[in-house]
Structures are given as structure tokens and as C-alpha cells.
Write a structure and sequence with these properties.
about 750 residues, alpha/beta, six-stranded mixed sheet, five-stranded parallel sheet, about 30% helix
Amino acid sequence: MAYTPITLPVIPADPEIEKKVSETLSRMTLEEKIGQMTQLQLDLLGEVGPGGRFRIVPAKLDTIFGIYKVGSILNAPYSYCLDAKAWNEIIPQIQEASMKHIGIPCIYGLDQNHGTTYTNGGILFPQNLNVAASFDTELCRKAAEITAYETRASDCPWTFSPTLDLDRNPAWPRFWENYGEDPLVNALMGVAAVKGFQGDDPNHVDRNHIAVSLKHFMGYGAPLSGKDRTPAYISPSDLREKHFAPYLEAIKYGALSVMVNSSSINGTPVHADPILLTKWLKEDLQWDGLIVTDWADINNLYIREKVAKDKKDAIRIAINAGIDMAMEPYKTDYCEILKELVDEGGIPMSRIDDAAARALRLKYRLGLFEHPNTLLKDYPEFASEKHRKAALDAAAETMVLLKNDDNILPLRRGTKLLVTGPTACSMRSLNGGWSYTWQGHLSDSYAKDYNTILEALTNTFGADMVKYVPTVSFNQEGSFQDETVADFAEAVKAAAEADVIVACIGENSYCETPGNISDLYLSANQRDMVKRLAATGKPIVLVINEGRPRILADIEPLAKGIVDIIIPGNFGGDALALLLAGQKNFSAKLPFTYPREINSLVTYDYKVSEEVGKMEGVYDYDARVNVQWPFGYGKSYTTFAYSNLSVDKKEFGPSDMLTVSVDITNTGSIDGKEAVLLFSSDHVASIVPDNKRLRAFSKLALMPGETRAVKFHVPASDLAFVNAAGHWTLEEGDFTLSVGNLSVPVRCTTTYTWDRPNI
């Protein structure tokens, strides 16, 4: 995932589509071209009617499409979730108005982030962080494929997904939307998602697939403060080598659009950065896709970032930097101001033609001119049993067993359980944000037919074996952090009758800025609850249901079993019950580093110089790297042994391919799956080397006693890094390749530097 050959352009042009784009563009007025660069929210097209339901207002359609020629609409009503039938009524009206007034179809976009997020009745999968924990790219591809199918049933051809920001600050409230902290995992999961969403041909996306918008390009997941939409300060090497890598891979595999980071990197808002938007994406890659802003982020160039004096100045900066479509989303004055800028020469006509052509190209690639609508009646597998099973299996594959002292798990039949804690009865917690509504705050209502953790445990172990006593509960009317605390005395009393206490801890649903926190510790109320229950002497199993790693170092020693279910979706309760009962086996591993201390927040690829306490001859002032659980950690009900690690070349040059082989044996008594991770370490480099880097991974299933060989084919160029001059370089010297507890030395025999720094 370093310097690998790229065929340019990354998406080969289709001559027939390009001819259509050119012909359509030639017939368009300036106002119509600007309209194609405009995206407004659904609310501007209608009103809330009887029963609080949204309905289209024809006069508003005539204004938006007849006067302003708007090319795209997005989003859903805030207060409730539409079902597929309602989408089939609303979007066709929008398309009819667009074709009537412009002769060009509208492109509708929704944040279908973990399943059909904004379609009531559709299938919700685990969030992306869960998917990453599976280390199974096929699971990711399949979830995206089903989501695309069900989104088309809702007459929507475009999703703002997948999210490929690297999770580099665990306090960040969007931590759970991404595939963890590692560039390779994000890249390969991103590629799998693109294939699942779009299919195999980006020039001809069929009616079972939808276009993606990779977000949020880039560096969004590394805010210095940990707060949403706040500045990041990223070294040029890390920006190119790590943060750009997932987007590059996904674009190489045909991603058709990109959404931009809302904040700034090293002082420059990404929406105003022509180097990242135009040079890196469009020129260096010869990529002909569409760049869309995030929500109102052109406005934020003057409102929040203060790099523009007013809206007109902000539009000039953003469009010239490379923005093609503005998610305005509130006002039509964007269209008027943009026309003024063109008339005055502030934005060249060539930039307008390029942006409008990119919007048209996306619509032609989606077949919207021939088939503006796709309707529920043509999608018989919508919310089918097959899709439900896929979501259940995915949930089970993405929960991480972190502790299992004395083999307390799986729970034996006849075990009396005391269940408590704020996430035990919460569908909000199981689904997180982007679930039915933006904040996921109505999930308990919309998902009432699915099982909470308590309901699933009761169904699996029996009503006579499960007792629930409330202790800490979420206050659903206030902030996501608001909690209500009951008297612990009843729970302590009930513990006397129980064999095992299942304490369900974690977070309520949140999304984006409303999820900001100033304290990464799990709430004091929940930690106090665990301490009071531990004082009873009964064994505790902690079930962690959270979107980011909340620190719990003081209660971890009190538990015999710990399971991090992250945010598994509607089938999370059922999947957890199957795992705790031993009907399924754990196989997931952490795709992030779980911190132990508030001031020791590191990622697994930390610089070797951070291990100050371990360095011989250096004063030890305890600046060690100390974590609760490392990246890639996860247990199983069976055991695995690694042996016979080998590499076909002990010495290599920059053009070589390294084949690494290792044998994996299931040494336990039950079937299991193991995620096999290959790391490299560079001993000496011209800039401080990383402790280690993930270079490949694979997931395999093994029966008891079975041994299988896993082979990884790693281009030697993947061991390169971006040097201080901003160029990829592979330097002469020693490396270590490691898998499990095994390692093998290799050596690069020559130094080579590539002359194309950005790709």
C-alpha cells in the first residue's frame, strides 16, 4: 500500500458517455451548469403536512428546478424516517420536475452508512468500525452490495459512503463511522465497499448498485482536540503515506465521487485547498469523478474558518480550489452568487464547464437519463430473510472477545444471569448514529421489533434464568451523555440469586458534533455500578457497546469476561446472545488501539522513539507506550498456533515481490476463524520509523486440529515510506516481518526513490 503502479486515468473514459456529456454540456446555459453544481436539502422542496409527515409542494419544485436548475437533492426529514414506499412517492416527483424544467435527471443522495440507514424497514448492518474488526473484506463487500440493492428500492442512486478517515484520535465522535486507525484496513475495506456499492464497472452502474462518495477527504479523523470539525496537524509524510492511501485505493477501483473534510489540515481548510483537491485527486490521478462539499462547508470558510470575508469570497475560493458540487444546503443564493463570480471573471468558465461535466458524467454512468427512477416493486429481496441473515452473521463476526478468565464464557446452560446497565435495553446503543435519523435518537421506536440485549439473552437462556434490574439508564430526552441512576441496592440484592452478572455498559447514540466529549473515561456512574456489583463477589461479564474506546482501566480487573460489541446494528442483541451461549464463536479483532490512560493515546504504528522507557542507556522517565488492549487483539473459544513462517527472499530490491508463508493450526476443540495479520518493522530509516506497520491480512476458518498455510504476496515497494522531501523511498537496510509470535529478518539491498511524489 505504498508506491504501487497506477494506470492512468484511474477510471478509463467511455467514449459514448463522454460524447453524451459533451453534447449535453454544449446545450446548457450558464444557469443550468451552475444548477448542476448545486445540492439542496429535501426540506426546501416541501412542507410538513398532516400527521407531521413530509410532502412535496409543486410550487417549490417549480422554483428549485424551474428557476435555479438545481442538479441534486439530499437528506431525509429530521423528525422521522421514510419507508421505501414513501421514497417511491417523493423522489419520482423530484425527477419529474427535473426532467420537465431542465431535461436532466436529478441525482438524489443519502447517508446510507451502515445499511439502508434512511429507509424504515430496510436492513441495518453493523457500523464500519465493526466491519473492520472482522478483518473480512468479503463481509464488507456483501454488506455494501445489499445496502445498494435496498437503496435502489428506495429510488436513490447515490450514497455518501464509505467513510475512510483514519481514526487517529479516540475521542473523536465519528470514530465509529470509519474502519479503524490503520491505512491498509481502511483501504482494503474501502475497495470492498466500492465494489459492493457500485459493482464492477464504474462507467455503467446497473440498477442494483449505486454510486459512492468517499468521505471525508482527508485527515478528518485526526483532530488535535478530539472534537468534531476542529483542526488537524498532520506531517506531510503521514498525510501522503497514511491518510491519502485509503482514498487512493478506492479511487483506483472506480469510486465515482468524493466528499471533503469539513475542517482544516495544518491551517488550510480542505475545501479551500487546490493542492489536495485539484492536484492530488484530479491532475495526478487523471480522475474524472465529482467532488462534493460536506454540509454547508463552503459557508463555513467565512463563518467558522475565517479564510474568506463573506459568502461570495468563500464560493470563489472553494470552486477554484476544485469543488464541483456545493452541498449548500439551505439557500439558492449560492446559484446567484456563483453566476456573479463567473460574470465578473472571479471564476473561469472552464472551471464551471469542468464541474458541470463531472455532475453530468456521474448521472450518465448511473443510467439516470434512461431510467431516472428505480421502484420498490422491482426489488423483491428488499428486507428479505436472506438479507436479515447476512446482517445477523455480520454482527456475530464483528464482536471482539477481550477477556475470558477461567473460561467464564461461553455461559453454561442453567446459569442464572443478572442483567443490568444502560445499554441492556437500548436499540439506540446497538445502532448508533445514522440510524433512521441523523442522531439515531428514534431507534428504540423504529427498531422495536428487533431484540435488545436483554430480550435476546432472555430468548436464548430462558425467562426464568435472566433477571433484569435497572441501575444506570440513559436519559433519552437529553444529551447522549445524560444518565439516570437508580438505587444500586436492588441490583446488589438480586446478585445474590445470580451465578453471573452481565453488565451492559457504553454509550448512547450520537453523531458528529453533538457527540463531542471532554472526558474519554467511561462515565463515573457506570464505573461505580460495576464496582458496586463486583463487591458482591459474583463474576462479572462486561458487555461494552460504544462507538469509541472509553477508558475503563479501573473496572477492567473486576471483570472475568469482557466483550466489545462496538455498534453492531439491529441484530446485535441476537448475535451477542449466540456468542455468549457458544452457538457461535468469536473471531473479531480490534481495528484500533484501546487506551488505558488519558494521556497515553497512541496508535499501533507509533514512532519507535515513543518507547523512551525501553531504550537502553536513556533516562527512564516512564514515557512508555501503555495500552489496555493493542490493535489486532481478540480472543476466541478455540486456540491457534502459528508455525513455519518463511519468506522467499531474504534480500530484495524495490521491484521484487515478497511471498510470505505461515502455517496456522486450530489447536482447540471447536471450529474457529482466525484473522492473520502480517506486520513489517523498519530498523533504521532517514526519518524516525514507525514501530510497525500492517502489510497484509487474511481471514480463514479452521476445524479442530486443522492446519492451513497462508500466503501473502507483498510488493517490496509496500515497505517504502514518504521521506522528508515528500517522495516515496525504499531505503537499503534491515526489516523484520512478523506474524503472530513469529518473525523473520529480510534486507533491502539498495535505496530507490520514486520521482512522482503524490502517487
